[in-house]
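Try this one yourself first.
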């Protein structure tokens, strides 16, 4: 529950979005160091501090993808090098980043930035 103070009122409480509450109580899954190395070697890296002007930074662990956000699966050649995922997760590419995504609710568990993805 969040409490928000409004002028002229004591406060109002709003429930947390279900996706945020679920991720806070569930174990957050992350890419392993080995997975990060394999993915970085495949795509190559760039300076992750440089972000194109106006690019949103909403792709953070704990957030849910906005419905309709374009995403694509990793190339089959890369996916075959990585350990198998539990069926409730996917590794996807969104806006030049690789995400570890919980399929139900499209919750972001981890993000790899700074890759040279075309």
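Now uncover the answer:
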């Amino acid at each position: 529950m969040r409490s928000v103070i409004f002028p002229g009122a004591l406060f109002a409480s709003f429930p947390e979005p279900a996706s945020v509450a679920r991720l806070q109580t569930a174990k957050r899954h992350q890419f392993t160091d080995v997975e990060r190395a394999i993915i970085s070697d495949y795509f190559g890296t760039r300076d992750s501090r440089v972000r194109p002007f106006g690019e949103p930074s909403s792709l953070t662990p704990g957030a849910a993808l906005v419905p309709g956000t374009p995403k694509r699966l990793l190339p089959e050649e890369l996916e075959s090098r990585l350990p198998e995922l539990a069926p409730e997760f996917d590794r996807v590419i969104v806006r030049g980043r690789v995400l570890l995504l919980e399929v139900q609710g499209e919750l972001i568990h981890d993000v790899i930035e700074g890759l040279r993805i075309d």
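Discussion: The chain is about 20% helix and 20% strand. The helical segments are 18-25, 33-43, 76-79.
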